Amino acid sequence: MRVTIVSRIYRPEPAAASFFLTSVAEALLAGGHAVDVITVRPPAGMAVESRGERVRTFPVLRDRTGYVRGYLQYMSFDVPLVFRLLFTRRPAAVFVEPPPTTGVVVRIVCALRRIPYVYDAADVWSDAADMATGSRTVIRVLRSFERFAMNGAAHLVTISQGVAERVRELGVGRSITVTGFGADTSAFSVMEAPVQRVFVYAGTFSAWHGAEVLVDAFSEFATTHSGYTLRFVGNGSERAALEARARELGIADSVEFAEFVPPAELAPQLSAATASLATLKPGTGYDYAFTSKAYSSLASGCPVIFAGPGPTAPFLESANESVRAGVALPYDPSAIAGAMREFADGPLSATERTALASWTVSEHSMAAVGRRVAAVIEDVVRTGGR
User: Fold this and answer.
1) Contact 369/158 with Cβ under 8 angstroms?
2) 157-207 per-position pLDDT tens digit
3) Which of 104, 106, 150, 356 fits a disulfide with 172 by CB distance 3.0 to 4.6 angstroms?
């Protein structure tokens, strides 16, 4: 069969969604299916990558950090998508990645062409937007778009049971399969290198992540451990606030900010870091979210210091029964500083890092997640979208 993947982000752009969609495409190709990808033109300096799928790109607006994020940016993808999807070779099914506005376009076009689609409900965008805007009108409109997009799908897939339950609370009655998430173990793996005096936060830092607590924690940690660096790799709406906080605390020289880099460049940084960092700010209405950046870190043999609510904490606690995966803490600077001291004074050995990476490949490979999603899509086609 032929499957069309619709997404505003795809490889080679380094993001969790890119890794995930790549795994789905590769699983479908391995199953003997044809795959078309309707996506955006990569940023300058990056070339389109294909491993058998047909990737069709189109120029779009990007924000000042080079990311396709924001209402105008989404519209620059969604408006042309109407025609791109309307006149593309007819697929047996469509697999669509948020934002919800893209889901709305896909529902309308797929209804006109009588094509079933599967929606990736990796998280709830209207809940995340609640942190970014005080406009109740904007939230109501976005929530209605999200509900409309989800309720038109033949099936939904999601990362965790917590997200599935939240989707149900929004009034979505479609079938949902929890496929989980994982690491792109073809890109992230342990590398032989001495452990460096660096703590790495890799990914987006938005308001609901609450990464500012890491700056406060690092300031406290630095009073007893000099010569270390806190490195943010990625982008997000809170960068200016993080930079200002580092200056206020007098640690700006020890806090680095780097743009997103491809997995091939990020993996060595994680592999050599003392530990990686992940946060989720409590009370944002997003407490059910899983911080998927943990998977890439573990696949690189790097332990994770996580602070906040949600399913990441029990995941790490369960992993620690098999390997030294990291630590889960309350969202508190002093607690995080204590964990930093623990890993600075007793970093994982080369043997422990290799064991951690091997365990991740065995238990949480993105390839396995891709196969589960591909199976859902195949079932939707087999049952005629019922």
Assistant:
1) no
2) 998 888 999 999 999 999 999 998 888 888 899 988 899 999 999 988 888
3) 150
